[in-house]
Amino acid sequence: MKSGDRARASAMLAKLVQEYPQSERGWYLLGMCVPDREQRLFCFRRVLAINPNNPDAGRQIALLSKPEAAPPPPCRATPTPPLVEPEPVSKTFTPTQPLPETVSPFVYEDSEVEEGTAESLPYEPAIPEKPAGKKQPAKKKQSNAPIYYAIAASVVILCVVGLGALYMLGTTGTLTSPFQAQTPTQIVPPTLAVLPSATPQPPTPIPSPMPTVAYSPTYEDAPCQFDAPSNVRVTCGYAIVPEDRTGDPNHTIRLAVAVFHSRSSNPAPDPVMFLQGGPGGEAVQLSADAYRVLVQPFLAERDYITYDQRGTGLSEPALVCDELDKVYRQDIYGNIEISTRELVYQNAFLSCAGLLQAKGINLQAYNTVENAADLKDIVKLLGYEKVNLYGASYGTRLALVTMRNHPEVVKSAILDSVMPVETNWINEYPNVANYTLTNLFASCKADPACNLAYPDLETVFWDLVRELDANPVTLTTSAYPMGTVTETIDGSYLLSVVMGLSKTTSLINTTPQTVYRLKDGDYSTLIAAQYALPYALDGINPGLYISVMCREHVLDTTPENLRAASEQLDVENFIWRPFYGDLEKMFNACKSWGAVGPVLGEKDAVISEIPSLVIEGTFDSATPPQFGKQVAEKLPNSYYVEFSNQGHVPTATDSSGCAMRMALNFIANPGVEPDRACLSELPRVEFLVPYTGTPPLELKRQRVFGVTLDVPKDWIFTYDGFFVRASSPFDITQVSALRAAISIRN
Description:
Number of helices: 23
CATH superfamily of the largest domain: Alpha/Beta hydrolase fold, catalytic domain
Helix content: 25-40%
CATH class of the largest domain: Alpha Beta
CATH architecture of the largest domain: 3-Layer(aba) Sandwich
Strand content: 5-15%
Radius of gyration: 29 Å
Largest sheet: 9 strands, mixed
CATH topology of the largest domain: Rossmann fold
Distance between the termini: 113 Å
Number of domains: 5
């Protein structure tokens, strides 16, 4: 078929939009191919009905509305990504505004080409790009979907007529996606990520769903649902915002907000706003529970604001998944057969999604872009002009998106343990694991005491991984009062344990000891850890977690990349159990959740001149230092600080107070680099090693229950007759004095 066969291309595209009436790309390309002016107007109006933010369709309508409109330009050669067979995620789709009532002007002699209808429109799944040369795995069920997407791909050939396509949108060498929102005069270069420069320009807002019709967020005061500290004034309420800012503005959600007011009689006008991680973590209750660590340091000079992100905590609706919670508990209690475990999790996963959707919840609206818009609305509703963002873990990603999309409300940003917007954590996990393990092994080797106690730690670890994979060990612990916890320990489990220990500042020093204990058949560390398993999901809302992870990570990659990641390391369990099974199955699980991938530009790196303090912990296995460095390079007014003895979120875990002091100094004067002097005073990580008698223990004498004891001076007395060493949460070394009533008879 020769290039430029527009009639045939039009017929093929008409067939495509009949099968997928909500295909924005299909309607747009059809509009560029048909010759009749009314037909073209109809197509572009359908595009705007699907996506009112599509600037190219609006531009084409404006051009066609001019009396002197030129003949239709040739169809644009839009690069089409390689195709993946889509799986329907929803039976219905509600457009943001009513579809045009105009009767379709399309009439074809080919009886196979018919006009689609607007009823029961299937949602068009995102089509992720896959690497060239890879073949899709065979599917048991076949559909016509690949045929129609192949038609879309072939349109590139059918519609190309020389270089005319380059001028279609009035540009001279830039092909702009029809999905990319931009100002009329703006040209976006065809780069995947914006490179930093000496004087970067403010970033262009991503083509994310922003309000197309006016809406008015409101605020309702409400009693605080937690015990507030007695010496501070706390006010609470709900911000009421649209669930989907591209949909019905009257379909609203309620976001729980808490404001801890400054103790100052003249507080600074710019409060700090804490953004919780997860995604899916509760922020309001956490701020109350961790008041002294997270909140109190800021109140001397300014207010502290936090809110439960949409779908979490006290916000309404909360994306609660009772079925997943039940299955998780049955699993850790050993009540699910290994042979059926994957199926049981899949059923719970689908049940959760179905129940939430049955309540009218649009799961696609629970994402970072909408979170950032919520943040902006809350700031305005509370009457503040600007805030200082304080993001931890996933909260840093939310902060970065806010800095890009709503810079008008941000004065400065503390980014503690950074998750870059452009980073796909799943694809990066093998690199993160390699960094974590390499850093751990090197740190132990450089420590004479650790290297002596645990020689050749790296070899021992990998030998142990292979041994546990070949001969898994089942551990059962009576986790009173929750029940008996059962876990199968294999190589993947060991990797997860080591990654978790390295992430947690208070447990970093136990990691070499744990590996060697396991080598010697001592599972005491893992048994102690099992007591926490029943509480592992406390404070995390699974619905938001799944929605964000699916959109911004799983569906931001391809099945081929997922498979490649799983082959680099045995990382089956590195992500949460709702995705139980191999990594490739996560892809299908996310589509069954109803998730779609990010829109074009949503994952581009953020460039911003907003002053920022980037904080990382050297041992962090969740957001390693290279993530923070990567982000700092694109923030010209940022300061990068790395804590050599810390894991995840140093501002909350650094017992020396250095990290929090630097954060406070930065907020007080964001234009001046914080004093780094305390970094040189950080104690190094002292790995736990067996006591050799050197140095000798300093003893103290204490009388307990009428018994005089000589115990180590720095051991902790528990008031029930026990003195514990407590060198780590897993240390069970103790001295005790026991007393019992006895009777002596002749």
